[in-house]
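Do me a favour: review this protein, sequence plus structure tokens, and tell me how the chain folds. Record follows.
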Amino acid sequence: MSFKASSDDLIDEVVHVVRFYGGFYPYLLSFIALRFMMV
């Protein structure tokens, strides 16, 4: 991740990270749920 002086670039970075984790989070939760169900 690159932190630049410009606030617009920083906002773009935050939006990108939020979108990435927002798309990844459900898979992570379902993976954890499957792990607990297998135990």
Helices lie at 7-38. The chain is about 80% helix and 0% strand. The mean pLDDT is 81. Residues 1-39 form one domain.
